[in-house]
Amino acid sequence: MSKKLRIATTSLAGCFGCHMSLLDIDERLFPLLDLIEFDRSPLTDIKHCGPCDIGLIEGGICNAENVHVLHEFRKNCKILIAIGSCAITGGLPAQRNHLDLGSCLTEVYLTEPGLAHGHIPNDPELPLPLDKVHPLHEVVKIDYFIPGCPPSGDAIWKFLTDLIAGRTPELGHGLIKYD
Amino acid sequence: MSDTFQLDGASVPFEPGQTVMQAALAAGHYIPHLCYHPEFKPHGSCKLCTVKVGGRTAASCTMPAEVGLNVESNIEEMNGLRRTLVQMLFAEGNHFCPSCEKSGNCMLQALGYDLEVHTAGFRHLYPDRPVDASHPDILLDFNRCILCELCVRASSEVDGKNVFALSGRGITKHLIVNAESGLLKDTDIALTDKAMQVCPVGVILPKRVGFSVPIGKRRYDQRPISAQALDDAPRQADASGSCAACEGTP
Q: I need a labelling partner for A126 at 20 to 30 A (CA). Which of A52, B76, B85, B167 fits?
């Protein structure tokens, strides 16, 4: 192969479970690294995304910083993949979507027992939370989706190797999971 | 020699009065479906079973079988429409599979798997649908309701209780409980009712048994729904009515 594909990854409103699952492809990481190299990723600690072939994004969009990072990925990645339930449906963080954000913050930081003298965090460095949590495809165009909470290492391996080989990625029974 | 119609190029025999779906399942041909249940009168609401007949689309669960029909089901055009329907159902309710105890036994999820639905695609509605945990033995989680009316039909036709009904129209249509308080605890529903066994998703759940079968060892974890639906359908030779789709029944 002439040139390695460049891949960026990030976790937005996620739990890094999908990244753990990516590492769960275990020794297949070695053949994978013959084909790809990592750009911005928690694995490389590169802070910003350069031009890439594939962007893998875990987690949904719950605050202003998530939106900026997602746009950076969309701008730089030829192919953008939403990985995991949160990126695809909003997932666990989206379970607050039917509640009012103000009352959530009030209950968590002010009125809930055990947080006496608490206050709603207001440091200017903290990104502002969005009114609702959104899946990625509601903010930018997403090219592919790998469902699962998290998708198994086998599912990620099958999907990436299909894609890298130029096949239409398919998961099939046993690999496609929503839970 | 019984009459036949064509389904995806195969000859399917049928008895007078059978629908395309009934004849197809009885002859061992799977047509994807969600609100259809072999023990109940067809409802025709989910449209997952839509097939192409003579160039037009029709719900195969309500379409009467006729001699010489040319039915196309397992074609990309129909499967594409089915995929969209499944996506719309996922976007309309709150189907959070990672926390659902029906995961692995859910027909909606299994159809999504079978049709390779990777995303709901549409904008999620995130409706506000509080659960009803009032009953000591039964939980109602309305977030997952797909309005198939199977519980309504089972409660009225088999249990004779009319515990459930649909109320409202269009996007505000929703499942209600037939009690003045609106709460399940004020009905005469029982764990042994047919209505407890027919929910294709995770709305009507017996309490305290949710994870007795672990995730990964459940019905549709074993084999895809397309390979199992035929087990549930009454055969012409054995129309005993026993139904593997109904949990808790032999």
A: A52
